[in-house]
Design brief:
mainly alpha, 9 helices, single chain
Length: 239
């Protein structure tokens, strides 16, 4: 009831204030025609005011807020790739027997535009990338993921990254992979069934990681060309 009363109180207060000021105007000037003239004019302008506020100003503010959120989100992605993402990409890419074919198809260079990036992201979603477990140092990968667990947890606590669905999927796949290693305790004694299961988890993480990386590169290209130029020099997908 108190919550409803608060909602009703403000409108009543504003209407009462308006009535009081109009009454003061009438008692001073005794001109009801003038009052109604401006009253009708003000009411007639309300739809235009609503249009300006809700459709134009509100949209501008939303776009600014969205841009700020995008900037903060991609700053966190930059931290992720500097701390762990690039290392993971290199680990997976070095174990991919088809990587040279993929590098030719998905190479990133400074001349690319948004359309080119969209084509690459679409193709990545349609292509199954496979990291050959036999070419991976499973022990090193398990230790690396375990060493980054606290870092990954801190990233997930940030609300800005919750808006990035693919990144959330990537984090879930990395946590799941790390849990698989932890449950098996000793990666050296994994059975063929264990290896097959790990292969699926690695491929899932690998695919998500590539998509997040290309999206991040697209952001750098459009917003921070100097960072993009540097990133292309150390790009794991370079030919």
């Amino acid at each position: 009831m108190k919550h409803i009363a608060k909602k009703i109180f403000l409108p009543l207060l504003l209407v009462s204030a308006s009535f009081i000021f109009y009454s003061i105007h009438y008692f001073i000037f005794r001109d009801m025609h003038h009052i109604f003239l401006y009253l009708v004019g003000d009411i007639a302008f309300i739809p235009i005011e609503v249009l300006l506020v809700t459709l134009i100003i509100h949209k501008i503010l939303n776009e600014r807020e969205k841009q700020k959120m995008l900037e903060k989100m991609n700053m966190l992605l930059g931290v992720f790739f500097s701390e762990a993402g690039k290392e993971l990409l290199n680990i997976f890419i070095n174990s991919d027997i088809h990587i040279q074919i993929f590098k030719t198809t998905f190479s990133i260079d400074p001349a690319m535009n948004d359309k080119d990036f969209k084509k690459i992201i679409f193709s990545l979603k349609q292509t199954r990338w496979n990291a050959d477990v036999s070419k991976l140092d499973i022990i090193a990968l398990a230790e690396f993921l375990l060493s980054k667990r606290d870092f990954f947890m801190k990233l997930l606590e940030n609300p800005f990254l919750l808006e990035h669905n693919i990144f959330t999927d990537l984090m879930q796949s990395l946590f799941h992979l790390e849990d698989e290693f932890t449950q098996r305790m000793n990666a050296r004694n994994m059975t063929d069934e264990d290896v097959a299961h790990i292969q699926i988890d690695i491929d899932r993480a690998y695919n998500y990681l590539l998509i997040v990386w290309v999206r991040y590169m697209k952001y750098l290209k459009n917003n921070h060309p100097y960072l993009f130029a540097f990133a292309t020099k150390t790009n794991p997908l370079a030919k």
